[in-house]
Amino acid sequence: MFKSFCLLACTLFTVLSWGQNVIFEPNVNYDARELKQNLNKNRDSLILESETIISQVDILNNNFLKTIDFNKNRAKIDITALPVGNYIIQARLGKKRIVMYLEKGDPINPFDDILPSISEEEERAERGPSLMELLNKKSVEKKVLYWVVSESKGSFGSSKTMSLEYEDKVFNLINKNKLELKSKVAKKNTLIVYEVYNLSKFMARQYRNRNYYESKNSEFFNVTPLYSSETEIQN
């Protein structure tokens, strides 16, 4: 009886869980045939596979840029954290660049046909103030963006991710890194955070030169990191 109940509960959860509203357009050109491009069954990750090493994957649009180093034959990219929007995804295989397209919409809510709709004002009032509003009591009208460079180093290798993030995400990443530096397992993980002044011009230069964030002078971002693991260790 208990097993039957658990099975029913799991089935209901699967049916009623929020779906990923994602449209993916793989590159079907002849030159891209060596790269297998698919979403997983849950449609929450993009799977890329190739006999040629996948060195890097870029995800970008007018307001977003994320670069992930892989240097592997298989890359799994979590798309759940991507904001709603249309994206160009570029995989780098040696000197070849393979471009794909992805459109992410709002999650499909299975309760939409069951529950009455509520206005944005009602939803905001029900949700309450955000974490950063409570901690800093700042206006959320001006959203500051940061360029975040994080590297995880473990016994099985390392991975490097570079992306634009809002301050609430940065706040969590910094706290996480401070804890990692005190641990035995993740104490070699690094995090560097830069404040971006001009989003479009910074992104254009960063996209052309993946090491642009290391510039000594720039009018488009603060070259002095807001946070750096190295500085944190020295202190």
Q: What structural keywords apply?
A:
disordered N terminus, 235 residues, 26% helix, alpha+beta, ten-stranded antiparallel sheet, Immunoglobulin-like, 2 domains
Q: What is this structure, in a nutshell?
A:
The protein has helices at residues 2-16, 120-127, 131-136, 167-181, 199-208, 229-234; strands at 22-25, 35-39, 45-61, 64-78, 85-93, 96-104, 145-154, 157-166, 190-196, 227-228. With 235 residues, it is α+β, with helices and mostly antiparallel strands. Strands 1, 2, 3, 4, 5, 6, 7, 8, 9 and 10 form a 10-stranded antiparallel β-sheet that branches.
Characterize the structure shown.
This protein has 235 residues and is of the alpha+beta class. It has two domains: 19-104, Immunoglobulin-like; 145-234, no CATH class. Helices cover 26% and strands 37% of the residues. The protein has helices at residues 2-16, 120-127, 131-136, 167-181, 199-208, 229-234, and strands spanning 22-25, 35-39, 45-61, 64-78, 85-93, 96-104, 145-154, 157-166, 190-196, 227-228. Strands 1, 2, 3, 4, 5, 6, 7, 8, 9 and 10 form a ten-stranded antiparallel sheet that branches. The protein is globular, with a radius of gyration of 21 Å. Mean pLDDT is 81; it is low at 1-18 and 126-141.
